[in-house]
From TrEMBL:
Keyword tags: Amino-acid biosynthesis, Lyase, Pyridoxal phosphate, Threonine biosynthesis
Cofactor(s) for this UniProt protein: pyridoxal 5'-phosphate
GO BP terms: isoleucine biosynthetic process; L-serine catabolic process; L-threonine catabolic process; threonine biosynthetic process
Positions of post-translational N6-(pyridoxal phosphate)lysine modification: K133
Sequence similarity: Belongs to the threonine synthase family.
Protein name: Threonine synthase
Annotated metabolic or biological route of this protein: Amino-acid biosynthesis; L-threonine biosynthesis; L-threonine from L-aspartate: step 5/5
Keyword Ion transport annotated: no
Listed GO MF terms: L-serine ammonia-lyase activity; pyridoxal phosphate binding; threonine deaminase activity; threonine synthase activity
Catalytic activity: O-phospho-L-homoserine + H2O = L-threonine + phosphate
Listed InterPro entries: Ser/Thr_Dehydratase, Ser/Thr_deHydtase_PyrdxlP-BS, Thr_synthase-like, TrpB-like_PALP, TrpB-like_PALP_sf
Domain Tryptophan synthase beta chain-like PALP, first and last residues per copy: 97-411
């Protein structure tokens, strides 16, 4: 497998849909989301992956590090890890909009002191549509583009249910790729922020609102995918999972492929991202690219916590049940029946077999803690959304319960840009949360603009007099001292 780092990879795998329930296998050249035999969910596996061991872990590390500097467009984003993601795609089909390669920002000393732990945030809100969903969409749309070309389709409708981020990403990538792909998104009416609603509308998608919550939208989309030729783009789509594995590869590369002293915190939501991260970590470990797995924490709000409820039970008697969700500031996590839960259960078992008991855990956090953790992070220079706040709250909870070694670095997944969820910050500052959120704003976290000078006073003053009087008001507010002669 010798090649120049500037060449598009020559390796081609053989991907198969593998049902996690009945173990049935299907070829990758079909649009499949659930097993035709039993209805189970799929993971995609490369049946040729063992051949990748012809290169040592060190050689793979060297290859991926060198590729990070390559300017070839199809290798610039998540596909610089091509052999690990979807090594069946031709270069002409790969879609790249600048996704991936998001930075990990070490927290300031003051935040580390406040938290009592060494913290870093991976700012996935710096993806093109301002969320981590772009990783999965880049892979899913590359696959769909290859399918449309191979089958000479003149039209293919893409569809997803969303709490906001998925719809924004799907609509953006569909708009870029264009015909024959078009985009329709289903949103829970009144449950999406204005900023997130604006994104698919701006990209020209057909936006349909459904009464209820995300789970209601998901049921509609699943019915359509089962009975009509549409491309489902939720994380039930295993091609999405492949693309989101890039998060794990990037974290490992950022830390020079040594994750032995790291703990990763990931919000669970629909469970696609934590599935992908586990899958990517296990894949790297199997190939010797990393030699130790980090501790991995899934985080759920108490308002939507079915995975937490499952793992809090004794291992020998665990039983999974969906939950009825309550309103949450972590809107992307407000899912009572994650479609990827079977993947989590399967991969968590594999993960603990390799890394030991306690290497995978789930913590539950309160809404108040999510909001105040987001504010704490952002007051120290981060751009975390409420899901990023959920991760920081998860770290604090794990510390409180003695689940994490104080010597580790906690890498938190800030899944989206803070501006997508800025309305929740405004509600906190103005104390306008509805009672069902269970959030009581505390004065030390509130911040509102202050009037320097009354507009009527300004109107009575000449320009110079206004400047002096307004400046004096600022001086008094800030306690400024004049310059010495």
């Amino acid at each position: 497998m010798s090649m120049s780092i500037h060449d598009f990879p020559a390796y081609r795998g053989v991907l198969e849909y593998v049902c996690l329930q009945c173990q049935a296998r299907y070829p990758q050249d079909e649009l499949l989301y659930t097993c035709p035999d039993c209805g189970g969910v799929f993971l995609l596996e490369d049946s040729r992956q063992e051949s990748l061991k012809e290169l040592s872990g060190a050689q793979w590390r060297e290859r991926f590090d060198a590729r990070a500097a390559v300017k070839r467009r199809a290798l610039r984003g998540i596909f610089r890890f091509y052999e690990l993601i979807a090594p069946v795609l031709d270069e002409q089909d790969i879609v790249y909009l600048g996704e991936g390669q998001t930075p990990i920002i070490p927290s300031s000393p003051a935040l580390n002191t406040a938290v009592g732990h060494t913290v870093a945030m991976k700012n996935d809100g710096q993806n093109p549509s301002a969320s981590f969903k772009d990783r999965g969409m880049a892979c899913a749309f590359s696959y769909l583009q290859s399918m449309a070309r191979a089958n000479d389709w003149d039209q293919l409708l893409t569809i997803c249910a969303s709490t906001g981020d998925t719809s924004a990403a799907a609509a953006l990538y569909a708009a870029y790729v264009g015909a024959p792909l078009t985009s329709v998104v289903l949103l829970p009416a009144g449950k999406v922020t204005e900023q997130q609603l604006a994104q698919p509308l701006g990209s020209g998608a057909v936006v349909l609102e459904v009464p209820g919550v995300f789970d209601d939208c998901m049921r509609v989309v699943e019915y359509l995918a089962d009975n009509y030729r549409v491309a489902l783009l939720n994380s039930k789509n295993p091609w999405r999972i492949l693309g989101q594995e890039s998060y794990a590869y990037e974290v490992a590369q950022w830390y020079d492929w040594n994750l032995s002293d790291k703990a990763l915190f990931v919000p669970i939501g629909n469970a696609g991202n934590i599935t992908a991260i586990m899958s990517g970590l296990l894949k790297m470990h199997d190939l010797g690219i990393i030699t130790a797995l980090p501790q991995l924490f899934g985080v759920q709000t108490a308002h939507a916590d079915p995975v937490f409820q499952y793992y809090r039970q004794p291992p020998e008697s665990r039983s999974y049940s969906p939950v009825e969700v309550k309103p949450s500031v972590a809107q992307a996590a407000m899912i009572g029946n994650p479609v990827s839960f079977p993947r989590v259960r399967t991969l968590a078992e594999r993960y603990e077999q390799v890394a030991g008991d306690g290497s995978f855990q789930v913590v539950q956090v309160q809404e108040q803690a999510i909001m105040e953790s987001m504010l704490l992070a952002n007051r120290h220079g981060h751009i975390a959304c409420t899901q990023g706040g959920e991760c920081l709250a998860g770290l604090l909870r794990a510390k409180e319960e003695g689940r994490i070694d104080h010597k580790t670095t906690a890498v938190l997944d800030a899944t989206a840009h803070s501006l997508k969820f800025i309305g929740f910050q405004d509600r906190y500052f103005q104390n306008t949360f509805a009672p069902e959120y269970g959030i009581t704003p505390q004065a030390q976290w509130q911040n509102r603009p202050e009037t320097v000078i009354d507009p009527e006073v300004k109107n009575r003053l000449a320009a110079d007099a206004f400047a002096r009087e307004a400046a004096q008001a600022v001086v008094e507010r800030l306690g400024l001292e004049g310059k010495e002669d």
